[in-house]
Amino acid sequence: MAPLRLWLAFAIASVLMFLALAISPVRHVFPEWKSIQKQYNQLAAERYKMGQDVRPVEIGLRQLWNPDLGVVDRCTTCHLGIDNPELRDAPEPFRAHPTTPHRLEEIGCTVCHRGQGRATTTEAAHGATKHWESPMLPSFYVSGSCGSCHRERKPPETYTVASGRRLIQEANCAACHKIPGFSLERKPGPDLSDIGDKVRPEWLYRWLKSPFDYLPESKMPDFHLSESEAAVLTSYLLTFKKKSPEEAAAGRQWEQALLNASDEEIEFGETRYRELRCVSCHAQEGRGGKLGPDLGKVASKVQPAWLVSWLENPREHYPDSIMPQYGLTEREKKSIAAYMVSELVDYDADPDEDDKILELIPEPDRAVMAEGEELFRQYGCAYCHALTGHEVRGEFGADLSEIGVKDIDQLDFGNTKIERSLVQWLYTKMKIPRIFSPDLRMPDYHFSDEEARQVTAALLSLTGDNIPPKYLPPSPDPPSYSPSGPFNRILEKYQCLSCHSIRGVGGEIAPDLTREGSMAKPEWIARYFELPYTLRPIMTERMPILGLTREEIETAVSYFQLVLVDDSIPREIFLSPPDRSMVETGRRLFYEKYGCQACHQVNQQGGYVGPPLDGVRNRLYSGYIYEWLLNPQRFIPETIDPNQGLTPEEARAITAFLYGLPPAGGSQGGSR
Amino acid sequence: MTHRPAPSHRAVSNPVVRALLAGGAALMLACGGPGGGGASAAETPAETAPEATQESAPLMQFEEANGFEIYQRYCLVCHGELGEGDGFNAFNLDPKPRSLVDDYMRTRVSDRELTEVIRLGGRKRGRSPLMPPWGRTLGDRQIRYVVSYIRLLQRKAQAAAETSGEEAAETGQ
Amino acid sequence: MNDLSTNWNATPQAGVGRRLLTRLTGSGVWRSVFRHGWIRTNRDRALTIYSNVFLHIHPVKVRKSALPFRVTFCLGGLSLALFIVLTVTGILLMLYYHPSAPRAYEDMKDLEFVVSSGVFLRNLHRWSAHLMVITVFLHMLRVFFAGAYRPPREFNWVVGVMLLVLTLLLSFTGYLLPWDQLAYWAITVGTNMAGAVPWVGDEIRFLLLGGNTIGENTLIRFYVLHCVVLPLGIVVLMAVHFWRVRKDGGLARPL
User: Fold this and answer.
1) A159-184+396-471: what fold?
2) pLDDT digits 0-9 by tens, A542-557
């Protein structure tokens, strides 16, 4: 028989062993979520007393289940108030979910938020745990998940993703990276094969060195080139010329002539520059349109002779230029060029510095050419710029099709001390592209904090093909509009579709012309081509005076009247002039009931948001006004004119009132 | 080049890491600081790495971001960029558009009341008909987004008022 | 048989309890289960041991010299105890586990988060498995250093080595079942090693995987091996092993 001491030790050891083994099962009996549910029930009782409709819950695990999406989300075990709007201000985890377009119980939580849906402890569920590859996204970035299913460029109700995608588009990320949904039809940068004829050497050096100094809205990113790299690349690029020496000599004569132009010539050029509304597309010092490059400092950039030949015919230089071909006289061309050369100068540039830069730029000998060639290749310049002998294949940068679900083990954090998460990595990369390794080539886009976040959110939406097709929203039919004949020649020559759109094809800055024939009267259209005044005084992007010939105007107007029509819109709704009482009713409805003067000017009185309505009968068909009043969004879904819910009688009366309005005292509407 | 993080960055939140970084920075200073003035990004010190979820500036969350977009499009012309009732179209209006960010709007007007005014317009709520009804143009959800964004504007206005109040107090001393 | 005890038990002066016991142990049902009566004599004691399969496993007599802890370190017994724990927890885990690619990992997550004491079960199974590999290995070392592989125990050494191999195989096949990255790559490495066998390597690899890469087939194969084939084999060999321990002269000591 063993001594008592041994028995005692055995007994104690057994009890300890039992207790140790009991820890885990006991913890299962009193889990964290049960106490959270009890807290919720306390809150519910308090709120119920305050008269809010918040009911207590039965203690037990809850889950959302969607086998198609692989969702088993037990988040609702603790997040008990997500579908109760009364709890918008409640503390987490009981707060109501923000309004979303989706039914939460259908798609679950982790589809958007990520994290570990099956987990039932706070730590494991939120997913920042070892061996869980998709931790919860910080709340700002959750909207990135909208884009995983909504793959169009500008999905509805997803401001953050849509902004990020716009930035990806504007920054031309797809030139170097494979990004689903983004593909460039043409190289985003200008063709460089005549760069030697086009620009000044000191400008090219400054531009390569830091493009954002010359142009804060630069589309070309900052490659952080060293001084010698920029100098070598400048020297290399300047060797690309198209002009023969004789032409170049003639150009220099031109240059002298332009620089010696008289003040009257320059003044005339400035007047024409303003009248032609160049600023609609070309900003000056950041103010104006964004379609073309900023011209505020163009004299410090391009060589004058090149400018004149460009104005002559842009598409002779670049066949796919979107600049309209203006019908300019010889004198106009020269005066405009003289104005630009003498006035649109970079006054911040230091002339002494110019000389220093010119000294820096080496002669293009064999070694410099080889080095320039290497730099051009190294930085992937050819992915954005066409240059003879530099054709490219494949992508220069990483494939981003699944960057949104990249495992962090596959990311290089270098020696940075940032948080080890995909979101933080992407954001840091957007802010300082080469931070993770000195070998990286990605240029700097100077994104602001907010922009970097939006791009990060948009990148997080690139999750590959992990969504079952039935959950993807149907993609709209691609728009198709292919005109031919003389009207097409007009569209080509004046690049109308850079700004206007027809049947879904074209730009977004000017009105859609799909129904123009049912909307505007031909006489007005013809007059408008001759002298386009601004319908909306607040717009900076105004229709330029293109100088169409009489035949061209006739062609366009008849095309509008025959083709660009909507048969469901009557032209005129009044067979005889409407009676006085109807007009009076309309007037009262216009001013008193619906407050239309808040946005529209009549007789110099009223708001500046919509077009002025004086003499609208000369511009629009009454049928269109009537239909528009009934439902403005029918014609332009994104118009800000609110649908007031007019009855047909009211709409008729207001139309009658508007149709009676005389043109404003001889002036061109509300143009300023 | 200095190693002071840009003031807008609240880059490191972990106190231990912060202490380490401070130590490292002190060491660098003691060694005469990093040589050369090259400003290339690769040389940017790790501790100035930006934060993806910075707290100093309030981030626009889902509802507010969508509300911002709608507000920009439909409301800004009269109510102004910051909701102070000073949009460029405001001077044409009589009565003037309401400031959306004063104390009364912030504390006394409920979400429900805001929603109703936006949905039904001023006339149906006994106010100016110059505020149009948006209920047929915007859905309930869109109006909810706008209300959220207005609340964000109110918080911003309040914060701005507080800081300017503090500054005034400081200069007063 | 057992006349003496029956007679003794049946004496009139015996109490009610005693008489009931006698009636019970004398009944046909008792006799069909146990081949001996109530333990009164040395013969009964011997019969109890001989005719009971569970008690039979343990030797009737153990030499005093083999009793101290340092002689065996209880390694064989510990291995058996762990095997029993593994069997029990393994069966309980089988109640929740589907050996299919879409479900396997999720079932494991459910065990972790929603099955009552699921984490406890899984951890018991896992740690017992690790421990069993260790104890079996140490057991082999102990036997080696004690020289207990020498005749007449050489065959039992061979059986023991087979048991070690089976233990390792159980451990290996169980590794795949969680169906996570660790499992996937561990089995990739493991089966590639099998593929390095000369001449028939590729065939062995194909046999193990049920294909050329790890997939649903591999999971099913490993599941069947882990839960049926290998445990059966190990039980049979263990029986032989214990039986031989007795037959070869008890626990290790100089003969």
Assistant:
1) Cytochrome Bc1 Complex; Chain D, domain 2 (1.10.760)
2) 788 777 888 889 899 9
